[in-house]
Amino acid sequence: MSDLEQFRSETRAWLEENCPATMCVPIDGFEDLFMGGRNPEIDHPDQVIWCDRMAARGWTVPHWPKEYGGGGLSKEEVKVLRQEMRRINARNPLESFGISMLGPALLEFGNEEQKQEHLPKIVRGDIRWCQGYSEPGAGSDLASLQTKADDHGDHYIVNGQKVWTSYADKADWIFCLVRTDNSGTKHHGISFVLFDMETPGVTTRPIKLISGSSPFCETFFDDVTVWKKNLMGEEGKGWTIAKYLLTHEREMISAFGSASGKSLGEQAVESMGADSSGRLSNSVLRQNIAQYQLDTRVFAATMSRVGDEAKAGKGLGPASSIFKYYGTELNKRRNELNLAVGGETALGWDGDAYNDGLVSRTWLRSKGNSIEGGTTEVQLNIISKRVLGLPDE
Ligand SMILES: Cc1cc2nc3c(=O)[nH]c(=O)nc-3n(C[C@H](O)[C@H](O)[C@H](O)COP(=O)(O)OP(=O)(O)OC[C@H]3O[C@@H](n4cnc5c(N)ncnc54)[C@H](O)[C@@H]3O)c2cc1C
């Protein structure tokens, strides 16, 4: 038996013994994800058990180095772990901005003390992070941000406002872009800082979305003290870190385009009926679903190939914009098809008969996919300039 085969058989046995049966069913929308934190939102007690068991092996983030609490697995071993989890439909034990965004940036740009302090807590799900990038006057044009950090020797005093800060009211810490210098071009003088959301002067105000939920907030900073030990990278050079982190964010968002759970085709046959040869009787919908399923497979195969080619742990760089663009468009298409398959029932908003509007609320939420993490138009600009190398004009 090769080492990898041995690893597979041990992993399979361990997963079968340790993954609770309740964690082997598809997630039921965003709210069903386990995101950890000081005051975790727990839908089912097994979420905590599953997360703790996986974290004890470092398998909540299997590719991170062991010295920071990760699993220390090779790329091939991570792939085997994912395959074995898929085999039993095991859920990801922990989803967080710490894992998908801050962690990769910390590994690349953080100092040793910062890595030791924050990475193990991310692996265990002890601390939940939010992202303080966008401001009322700085979205696509992020470098125009104005939140100010004044130098007070061993600390900064931060004043300003962020907006669309996902889960700011639930997060424990924030990674935040602030302006430490206003004298040069807008990309210079931006610094990348980390601070506790319980620091005096931080307030959040939830914003309600069209889907009826309030997953994000306006976030205000009034004379907030941020210690300089929490400055990541060099003062005034945070733009490089900000861009690096965004490529990881876009990779995370592009994964929304990967299908999971029961296929749309199967669902459609169940709810709309089949013709005499077992095919979905509505031929137009059948064709649209088939096209969607083909595109999803091609997307998954391309993601997997490009992921294999990328240097371990480094991410995809600007190519992440291609996946962000295509993955979010696919996810929006899936949600349109979900509505079509569900028919009238899918339009229900409240009550058990409509699963509290899960289909329609998820459809509405999907509209934000092509905005969050940088809009589709901005991704197309990045692809044309930084991937294809086309001239500006
Ligand atoms: C669900 C969701 C979650 C989010 N979570 C967070 C978060 O946690 N933290 C955070 O900091 N931010 C978050 N955001 C904010 C997000 O990053 C911004 O909404 C996004 O970058 C766009 O900025 P804007 O909303 O200011 O739109 P604008 O920048 O004002 O853009 C308006 C329109 O103009 C177009 N446009 C702008 N510039 C160009 C250009 N150069 N070329 C072509 N078209 C252009 C855009 O594509 C868009 O259609 C979230 C957004 C959403 C929808």
Overview of the structural elements:
The protein has 393 residues and is α+β, with helices and mostly antiparallel strands. It folds into three domains: 3-95, Butyryl-Coa Dehydrogenase, subunit A, domain 1 (Orthogonal Bundle); 129-236, Butyryl-CoA Dehydrogenase, subunit A, domain 2 (Beta Barrel), CATH 2.40.110.10; 241-387, Butyryl-CoA Dehydrogenase, subunit A, domain 3 (Up-down Bundle). It has helices at residues 3-18, 45-56, 75-87, 97-109, 112-124, 238-254, 264-272, 283-309, 320-346, 358-366, 376-387, and strands at 129-132, 148-151, 155-166, 173-179, 190-196, 202-207, 216-227, 231-232. The strands form two sheets. The chain has a four-stranded mixed sheet. Strand 6 and strand 7 (216-227) form a beta hairpin. The chain is globular. The relative contact order is 0.09. The mean pLDDT is 92. Residues 130-134, 139-140, 164-166, 216, 368, 371-375, 377-378, 381 line the site of flavin-adenine dinucleotide (FAD).
